[in-house]
Amino acid sequence: MKEISSERPNSKELAEYFELLKFPTVGADPMHLRDCVQCAMWLKKWLEGIGADVQLLLPPGESVLNAPPPVVFAERPGDEGTPTVLFYGHYDVQPPDPIVEWNTPPFEPTEKDGRVYCRGAQDDKGQFFSFLCGLRDFLNEFEGSVPKKEGSVPTFKFLFEGQEESGSAAIAKIAADLNDRLRADVLLVCDTSAAADLQPAIVAGLRGVSHFTVRLKAASCDLHSGRYGGIVPNAAQGIAELMASLHNPDGSIAVRGFCDKVEPPTPEELAAAESAAMSDDAYINETGVAPVGGEAGLSVTERNSFRPTIEVNGIHSGYGGPGSKTVIPCEAIAKLSMRLVPGQNPAECMELVERHLRLNTPKGMTLSVEDVTGDAPAMRLPLKSPVFRLAAAVLEDIDPRGAVFQWDGASIPIVSILARISGAAPLLVGFGQGEDRIHSPNESFSWRQFTLGRRWAHDILSELSR
Q1: Structural contact between residues 93 and 123, judged by C-beta atoms closer than 8 angstroms
Q2: What tens digit of pLDDT does each residue of 8-66 get?
Q3: pLDDT for position 373
Q4: Peptide bond before 98: cis, by omega within 30 degrees of 0?
Q5: What whole-number distance in Å separates Cα of residue 399 and Cα of residue 213?
Q6: What angle, 0 to 180 degrees and rounded to 10, lies between the N-to-C axes of helices 125-143 and 447-464?
């Protein structure tokens, strides 16, 4: 086995990686649409460089003037009789806020101590680009060798989107329209995490996700807290009460009916997940806080992998500047997300939550639920999947510790849809780590992780080519 170390890419690859990272592709922000289009064009050129036929696609009937970030779809025919591999990734990134907490400019890649710091350095530009470099290594090995290396080159299809972080609405419509053009044998995704110390992990399940905004309105404007205090309702206090109503004192979800259809893991799944669990100390080192959130009486693994959540992502109301401003806020908003598990229907869960919020809206206030996106169900795959056995053998060759199975608490909304439309067996292997700080300031990705992603791509494609 070749030792996996922190192998820095060559100058051409490094330039490509940094150029990709510099696009501020915040897909959820219409102000960054131009950046997303430019990044999609960059990907188109890169994929054409390996011989793929590439299209930039918009949902059917979508106006160019009000379009979402384009979807990049590419096809590269392989040798006759070979399997078809569909690879998915996303080029959009989370907003860099709060910018003041970044140690370096969020869209200027900076190398330090074997890591690259930049928004998207890991999620998902670093992960998918390391895979693409491994794919290019594989193609050069087969098609650049004389005589040609024994084996056959698979057919490759690629899908890259610019809305994964905000619900994947465009690609869901496009995938349904592409239909048979997406037919494949294996769906590869490099957008997940490895286990502790980068032990390889095969993801056997993902939670679903939905996001939404709650808005509370009271008075017609902010009011003087002396003149009107104790008389008019306070929207900031109201939103705090409303958000608190979502959970019981033991941390369980208080929304009636929300957890009624949850499908628990099998004993085999739970045992496999627990065997790869991080210790409480590891969580403390990674996050700075003990893992005490969620439902009391359940292990960290159960709470993160097999139970749903409703999380408050942010609350905004009233005055937050220096000093004081003695007002009673007239409006408050909260941003929320739900992580769902098998058995839960996203639309039904959203309906239950909205009903709960309306029943618990404080007196004198009006509630609106806005910006509902995501609507993605959970995914759970059988442990006996043949593609899992193949992946486990490849990963054991890369790392003698072998691979573990994980049921990821995060979500990749489009994966279950792509698996259904393409008919492909999903295979999710990534090399993220908690220290990468994805979705947070100072996101980074190490050259060791990059090398592992590259090696994984080369080796799994070599195995599929036999």
Answers
A1: yes
A2: 999 999 999 999 999 999 999 999 999 999 999 999 999 999 999 999 999 987 766 67
A3: 87
A4: yes
A5: 44
A6: 50
Q: Is the dihedral of CA 298, 304, 306, 311 positive or negative?
A: positive
Q: How far is CA 448 from CA 6, 197, 456, in A?
A: 4, 11, 12
Show the tokens assigned to 432. 């993220």
Q: Is the peptide bond before 29 cis (omega within 30 degrees of 0)?
A: no
- Tokens, residue 35: 């950046």
Q: Is 69 helix (H, G, I), strand (E, B) or coil?
A: coil
pLDDT tens digits for 200-222? 999 999 999 999 999 999 999 99
* pLDDT band per the 50, 70, 90 thresholds, residue 199: very high
The CB density around residue 6, as the number of other CB atoms within 10 Å, is 13
What are 306's two structure tokens? 């097999």
Residue 37's φ and ψ, nearest 5 degrees, are: -65, -40
Residue 420 confidence (pLDDT): 92
Q: Catalogue the long-range contacts made by 291-300 (C-beta closer than 8 Å, 24 or more residues apart).
A: 293/251, 294/251, 295/250, 295/251, 295/252, 296/250, 296/251, 296/252, 297/250, 299/274
Kindly report, residue by residue over 296-355, the tens digit of the pLDDT. 999 999 999 999 999 999 999 999 999 999 999 999 999 999 999 999 999 999 999 999
Please report the pLDDT score of residue 147 as a whole number: 62
* Residue 106 C-alpha from the chain's centroid: 19
pLDDT value of residue 375: 78
Total number of residues shown for the chain: 466
CA atoms of 165 and 189, how far apart (whole Å): 15
pLDDT at 142: 82
In 3-state terms, the chain is what percent helix, strand and coil (to 5)?
A: 35, 20, 40
Asked if omega into 147 is within 30° of 0 (cis), the reply is yes
Asked whether the beta carbons of 19 and 42 are under 8 A apart, the reply is: yes
Strand partners, 415: none
Q: Are 357 and 216 in contact (CB under 8 A)?
A: no
Is residue 91 over pLDDT 50? yes
Look at residue 1 and tell me whether its pLDDT is greater than 50: no
Interstrand relation of 425-428 and 186-189 (parallel, antiparallel or unpaired): parallel
Domains annotated on the chain, with CATH: 11-207+378-464 (3.40.630.10), 209-262+308-376 (3.30.70.360)
| 215-219-225 Cα angle (round to 5) | 110
* pLDDT at res. 5: 62
In angstroms, the Cα distances linking 386 to 82, 383, 392, 440 are 17, 9, 10, 36
